[in-house]
């Protein structure tokens, strides 16, 4: 008698393949989500850097980072696909030789981190902030006290 030609997979083989795929998915999906969030934050940093260079050119022409004594100049880039960008703090009373630009996620539930850059082009990322894109005005109020758990961005 000849052995019948085996076709397909056994139930045990199929279950093993599904289990291995599930374990890989459990590992890969969070890593991919972190990669996506980090890429968005890096893009916001790039746009902040472009705005900081604009501010440096503005300073060279006007000898101040402020448009007037009470207003910041209009930034060339005010948003990315996921972050809104504004100066931090009111221009009124700010030092003429200093500025901080800040990027805050439109959806704070999916990305709580913010990123800031100052006149020395030092980028800082903070794990949380009270600032939101829904805040009215042309700048983020509250100064640096609204940002928590900050570290230099590398």
UniProtKB/TrEMBL annotation:
Q: Name one GO biological process term.
A: type IV pilus assembly
- What Pfam families would the database entry show? ComP_DUS, N_methyl
Transmembrane stretches, by residue range?
12-32
Q: What InterPro entries does this protein's entry cite?
A: N_methyl_site (IPR012902), PilE-like (IPR031982), Pilin-like (IPR045584)
Q: What keywords tag this UniProt record?
A: Membrane, Transmembrane, Transmembrane helix
Presence of the UniProt keyword Transport in the record: no
Q: The organism sits in which domain of life?
A: Bacteria
Q: How does it assemble?
A: The pili are polar flexible filaments of about 5.4 nanometers diameter and 2.5 micrometers average length; they consist of only a single polypeptide chain arranged in a helical configuration of five subunits per turn in the assembled pilus.
- What is the name attached to this protein's record? Pilin
Q: Which organism is it from?
A: Neisseria dentiae
């Amino acid at each position: 008698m000849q052995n019948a030609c085996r076709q397909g997979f056994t139930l045990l083989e199929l279950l093993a393949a599904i289990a291995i795929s599930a374990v890989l998915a459990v590992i890969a999906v969070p890593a991919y989500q972190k990669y996506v969030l980090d890429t968005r934050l890096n893009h916001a940093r790039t746009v902040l850097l472009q705005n900081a260079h604009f501010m440096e050119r503005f300073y060279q022409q006007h000898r101040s980072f402020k448009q007037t004594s009470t207003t910041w100049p209009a930034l060339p880039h005010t948003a990315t696909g996921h972050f809104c960008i504004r100066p931090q703090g009111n221009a009124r009373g700010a030092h003429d030789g200093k500025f901080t630009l800040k990027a805050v996620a439109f959806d704070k539930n999916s990305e709580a981190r913010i990123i800031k850059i100052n006149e020395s082009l030092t980028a800082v990322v903070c794990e949380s902030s009270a600032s939101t894109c829904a805040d009215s005005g042309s700048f983020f109020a509250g100064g640096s006290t609204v940002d928590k758990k900050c570290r230099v961005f590398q």
